[in-house]
Amino acid sequence: xxxxxxxxxxxxxxxxxxxxxxxxxxxxxxxxxxxxxxxxxxxxxxxxxxxxxxxxxxxxxxxxxxxxxxxxxxxxxxxxxxxxxxxxxxxxxxxxxxxxxxxxxxxxxxxxxxxxxxxxxxxxxxxxxxxxxxxxxxxxxxxxxxxxxxxxxxxxxxxxxx
Length: 162
Description:
By secondary structure, the chain is of the alpha/beta class. The protein has helices at 21-36, 54-69, 75-84, 95-105, 123-136, and strands at 13-16, 44-48, 85-89, 112-115, 143-145. A 5-stranded parallel sheet has the order 3-2-1-4-5, sandwiched between helices. Strand 4 (112-115), helix 5 and strand 5 form a beta-alpha-beta unit. Helix 1 (21-36) packs across helix 2 (54-69), helix 1 packs across helix 3 (75-84) and helix 4 (95-105) packs across helix 5. The chain is globular, with a radius of gyration of 15 Å. The chain starts with 12 loop residues before the first strand and ends in a 17-residue tail after the last strand.
């Protein structure tokens, strides 16, 4: 995914709301389709406040893909996607969540961020989340993309990390 701010490609994908309905119904199937097409080759870090582990996230992704797509037709792609999934559990208004996110990002310097969180989140909660996000960022020019699920569809996806 090109990063228009820095001119470089994204080297990780972080999506907030990893345990939600949008992730289950749209994001996981789209990530699977991107993996099958060979255009997703970066770590994918799900962030949510659900008391999950990475194993729970991977199970949710597998179950979602099976249910939404009608079954797994490319075991290699599924395994590749599941191996790329990472998970950070925490409240979006808590700076510690973003400290753990930085750690999970490792050497990534140009991650793309996708916000799949309810718009009903209170304005003060959104403000504190953005403040926590910005104050803990160590990467170069973090890119936040807020868009509809359609931007993650197989038909409109662009390579991440290419």
